[in-house]
Amino acid sequence: MFSLEGQTALVTGGTRGIGQAMALALAEAGADILLVQRNTTHTETKTAIEKLDRKAGIYEADLSSEESVAALVPAILHDGHRIDILLNCAGVQRRHPSHEFPSREWNEILQVNLTTVFTLCRDVGAHMLGQELNVAGRRGSIINVASLLSFQGGMTVPAYAASKGGVSQLTKALSNEWAGKGISVNAIAPGYVATEMNTALISDEQRAASILGRIPAGRWGTPEDFKGPVLFLASAASQYVSGECLVVDGGWMGR
Interior CA angle at 217 toward 215 and 219, to 5°? Predict the structure, then answer.
């Protein structure tokens, strides 16, 4: 039920943190992995995948560039790959008081976190619609990474909140069109996770203590906490699941 043997996953944001853990989870379940990276010299994830006896490749793309993103899927398909799983994990974050938030950074965040996600969903989705059903009984599975800020507003992060709210709604919109055609479209919304993106929060002792005090699980998340959820959504185990935003937050949203 959880096997991904014979499938290929296209992964953004797989060089570190949550994205790296999820890429490895897909490989451990039998998938070959195509990594999208701005810097192709970062080969740690590729090497780890190959040690699992799975194939791994790196495609160079700048996810802040519309032109670079538009060229990505055509290049992959030109090389003869079939894409069974799309995992959109790449994201950027910037903090400023909203009345001082720079337009340049707003545009960058919306481009990477939302517009690029749509472009890849659109282009990979068009490819999947033309495929025969795979061994999991699907034409494909798309998994986007949302956030607690898909539901909450946060503080000093208006662009990030807007982009992740958009990811949640985009996931539902695409599911409405594609679930009946053999493509599941879901999202994972991480809670507070001890990764580089949250360094500023972790370094603020008062804020970090406040956050920890509200998490029923009693700890911050780790990248490994996302291996099971991504495998569930990528595999036949979630055959009747689409349009869902799966919150992985140690119980935060239940408070």
Answer: 75
